[in-house]
Amino acid sequence: MPVEGGSSSGSASAARHPKQKRKAHSLSIRRTNSTEERQPGILRGDMLEGQDSKLPLALRNNLLDLFGQIEREFENLYIENIELRREIDSLNERLTGDGQTVEGGDPTKGALKTKASHSTSQLSQKLKTTYKASTSKRLYTFQSKIGGPRNFSVATWELWGGDSWIVSSFKATTGSRALCQLLKEYMGHRDGIWDLSVTRTQPVVLGTASADHSALLWSIETGKCLLRYAGHAGSVNSIKFHPTEQMALTASGDQTAHIWRYMVQLPAPQPPPDVSAPCDDDQDSSDREEGEVDGEGPCEVPTVRVATATLKSHQGVVIAADWLVGGRQVVTASWDRAANLYEVETSELVHTLTGHDQELTHCCTHPTQRLVVTSSRDTTFRLWDFRDPSIHSVNVFQGHTDTVTSAVFTVGDNVVSGSDDRTVKVWDLKNMRSPIATIRTDSAVNRLSVSANQRIIALPHDNRQVRLFDMSGVRLARLPRSNRMGHRRMVCCTAWNEENQSCNLFTCGFDRQAIGWNINIPALLQEK
Predict the structure, then answer these.
(1) Residue 44 burial (CB count, 10 A)
(2) Measured between alpha carbons, how far is 129 from 465 in angstroms, rounded to an integer?
(3) 515 CB-near residues (< 8 Å, 6+ apart)
(4) Exposure on the CB side of residue 398, measured as CA atoms within 13 A
(5) Bridge-partner residues for 373, per DSSP?
(6) Distance between CA atoms of 311 and 321, rounded to whole angstroms?
(7) How far apart are CA 11 and CA 50, in angstroms?
(8) 204 C-beta neighbours (distance < 10 Å), count
(9) What is the pLDDT of residues 396-428, one digit of tens each?
(10) Among the listed residues 215, 213, 214, the one whose alpha carbon sits nearest the alpha carbon of residue 205
(11) Per the record, where are the segments of Low complexity compositional bias (predicted)?
């Protein structure tokens, strides 16, 4: 930041006019160039004007240091803006050659402004792509580049919630808090959590898959970490549990999927915390570093490092995996644009499902039938039918305009798909031409889930919100989020657990925590 030429003369003028000096009781700081070196013999107090201040010298020196840091930050932003301006001018020159232009070269006007939402989606996709493909031990490099509170673009601002943190304090109604209450936080991962799932056998535990190369099993009631799986060499992108046995299936950025066994013992349950007290804090804590909350992760937890079976046929990141009904076969989805079907007992590749034009993002199996649905960045999802061993049919669903982030089965004959185009669509398997319901949101939708009994859709968003809808597209509630509760980064996944009367919905996000919620479903449906 340039030095003001009149700063020294202004100081002399203030000394000649004591009346003006008495009027200014606030601390005045002489502006200096942040790049210049301070002389070692100059005291910090000599740089302060307004000697009649009643502030202690140590406090004044501290203020001077803080203002100096602010100046350096603004100087860095100024330099970055100059570089961005040059890039915009260069792009304008190229566009002019093609007969196009960006209005005035102003990044807040014209075509750039109209494509702000598209930039947000691109940045979100870049974040997800970098982490899910990561096999590096340096877990925080990319996060530190985009996650600091000082390096915001329009797209970054919207990805981190935009102005929703301002209005969320006013829109969180008392009724919403009564219907949706936070019960437990599960903190211990050292990086973002991509996926979570609940076991289908006793003992019932929560499983989380994280970019820190590990999967953790948690006690739902106490929030205590029970076991850690550390067999992957890359980001663990999904976790699913066997329908009848104590086995887990994880997919990873190391291009493999692992099947591993676990044995856990549940600790004694603790009394639930009092969540009825209203939250009075308006200020959001999204700019706080997660390391200050999460610590260094679980200590002295039993660790499994060797998989029972390793599935290695993919040539790219394995983004998701799931068990087929019965648990004898599994399906995996990869960025190599294919999904593979394996025999669990032999780890043998049975089928390779091809047809998608771009990377796969998710796969899901039907709870009672041999059906598989795969989602892709090619804006489609495909339904694979293995009910007839001799005929493997496939149906393509086209209804989104951006990446389909997930598509899941319901107990009936429906599929619910979510997309980066900020819409969720409900489809009837008997009529695939058009969706029977469309939900439009204000942010990209990640891995959604549908409750088995009441068929309530839980939508995790990039803007840190979680919303609940019914199958007809009617909005039921938004989970409360404030300084004391909720996610501080994008929410990656939701999972229902209706067998548990208290903690029946789980969410996880890039803030390295999973959250257990109590959703009063009967009251929610009654208010509809």
Answers:
(1) 16
(2) 21
(3) 182, 184, 185, 186, 485, 486, 487, 506, 507, 508
(4) 4
(5) 364, 383
(6) 11
(7) 9
(8) 16
(9) 999 999 999 999 999 888 999 999 999 999 999
(10) 215
(11) 1-15
CA atoms of 342 and 352, how far apart (whole Å): 9
Question: Three-class SS of residue 452?
Answer: coil
Gap between the Cα atoms of 291 and 185, Å rounded: 15
What is the C-alpha separation between 236 and 318, in angstroms, rounded? 9
For residue 60, the SS3 value is helix
391: which residues sit within 8 A by CB, 6+ positions away? 385
Q: At 399, list the tokens.
A: 């209804």
The set of long-range contacts for 23-30, using a CB threshold of 8 Å and a minimum separation of 24, is 24/50, 25/50, 25/52, 25/53, 26/50, 27/53, 27/55, 27/60, 27/63, 29/63, 29/64, 29/67
Residue 203: is the preceding peptide bond cis (ω within 30°)?
Answer: yes
SS (H, E, C) 221-251: CCCCEEEEECCCCCCEEEEEECCCCCEEEEE
Helix (H, G, I), strand (E, B) or coil at 462: coil
CB 278 within 8 A of CB 363: no
Could you tell me the pTM of the whole model? 0.69
Structure tokens at 244: 């009848």
Q: Are strands 225-229 and 303-304 parallel, antiparallel or unpaired?
A: parallel
Secondary structure (3-state) at 178: helix
Report residue 287 as tokens. Answer: 């700019």
Long-range contacts of 82-85, Cβ-Cβ distance < 8 Å, separation of 24 or more: none
Region 345-350: mean pLDDT is: 96
Alpha-carbon distance 360 to 404, whole Å? Answer: 9
Q: Looking at the predicted structure, is the pLDDT value of residue 21 above 50?
A: no
Domains contained in the chain, CATH given = 179-264+300-525 (2.130.10.10)
Q: What are phi and psi of 236, to 5 degrees?
A: -90, 115
- d(CA 337, CA 402) in angstroms, rounded, equals 16
SS3 83: helix
Q: Which residue spans within 6-144 are E strands per DSSP?
A: 28-29, 48-49
**Cβ count near 73 (within 10 Å):** 14
Sign of the CA dihedral with 344 first, then 306, 373, and 325 last: positive
| pLDDT band at residue 300 using 50, 70 and 90 as cut-offs | confident
